[in-house]
Amino acid sequence: MIMKFRFLGGADTVGRMGMTIVGDKKTMLVEYGMAPTKPPEYPITAPRIDHLFLTHCHLDHCGMVPAVVGRDGCEVFTTPISAEISEIMLYDSLKIAAAEGYNEPYTSGDIEKTMDLVVPFNFKDTIELGKLDVTLHSAGHIPGATMFEFKCDESTLYTGDLHTDNQKLVLGARPVKCKNLIIEGTYGGRNHPSREKTIEEFLSKVDEVIDRGGKVIIPCFAVGRTQEIMLVLKNLDYDMWVDGMGRSVTNLFLNYPEYLRDARSLRAAKKTFREVKNASMRKHAGRGQIIVTTGGMLDGGPVLEYLRALKDDPKNAIILVGYQAEDTNGRLLMETKSIVIDGEMVKVECEVLKYDFSAHAGHDEIVQFAKKCNPENIVLMHSETRELFLDDLKDYNVILPELGKEFELDV
């Protein structure tokens, strides 16, 4: 069966994902996110949707879902863990929009309607929609992150955000044989260093900072990265604290042990960290040795309070463990050793380092995964460097979709 595909966002950019599939008298939407820039950037307005598929709960994939579901009342197919964390992220997004004075793209009522219309499925489950069967597979990105396999006459795999290496939090994705592969290429042209070597160097630096009498601040994304770093640090005998939304996300992850590589290990990590539950506890945490805290790009959250108190001591260190987008405090810190706090640009005297703990596949991993899926057609998306894959994938029919332009695949 020939179906028509169109990217509403995320074709040649990272983030604000959205892709429609039209066929069998249905219009389906895979993801619908926003770019959490200042102000936020949104995908092209979606047509009327019959069914929506959500790969995972990061805002660049889920952030605009309520705008569609609130309008159309369509069912949302995703894993239960992705649905529950998305709800937290969406309400937080509304709160940020209100605080920053941005237009709210949907209401809290739209979020409630979205949650009511979630139809939860687990990995390996199959959704039957007329002539089309849709099967869920783990994407290895964060707990609950899903690849969707669409199958009628042929098989089409949509990866969403993908990682093929095992992390401490989740196991890597496994290839799925298909005719059509729609795959992310975030790290086109770039490979990650060895995860084992990164962990070794990271832990060595933590020891070094504490040995010299300093404190370590580790800004983290709440969903996935906070928990990965807690697992990396869990065997250290230091005074360690965790602050911000990552605390509640950790507890939620533990309610879904089937999506974790080792739930027992995450429970153990949770016990080694003291949780900051109020402002007075934050003062105690600031006297500790290691603080894992949101926000990951230093634009908001408890991290700014810790930086205000600890930035002037060169014995201390800020260790970045996630992507720092342009026009963020994190990128500013990396490039100038300055940050903006309370509207004022201030110098940072403590040590600043960055370690690669990415939850995305690197260039070579994407190529290897694609080849093992053995497709005829490869659609490259979610990437600003898609052309860098062309030499490695020259034996396949590679499609580089353009924003808003339709293309067809035999599904």
From TrEMBL:
Residues 226-333 form the Beta-Casp domain. Keywords: Hydrolase. InterPro entries: Beta_Casp, MBL, Metallo-B-lactamas, RibonucZ/Hydroxyglut_hydro, RMMBL. Signal peptide: none annotated. PANTHER family: CLEAVAGE AND POLYADENYLATION SPECIFICITY FACTOR FAMILY MEMBER, MRNA 3-END PROCESSING FACTOR. One of its GO terms (molecular function) is RNA endonuclease activity. Residues 16-221 form the Metallo-beta-lactamase domain. This is Beta-casp domain protein.
